[in-house]
Amino acid sequence: MKRAVLFCLSALLVACGPPPEPPAANVIGDPLEQSLEKARSVEGLNSQRKDELDEAVDAGN
pTM of the prediction? Predict the structure, then answer.
């Protein structure tokens, strides 16, 4: 009986401990920021190519 009470009390102390600390790294935000930066660079490249094509068409007219 004493062992059961001791076990229950120790389990209660462990369960009521402080919550675990959050992870140090931004697990969700970092990959999202990298994807957005990659999309911005692709968008800039497409815009640059469109501008060059527009200039070539204007020069041909």
Answer: 0.47
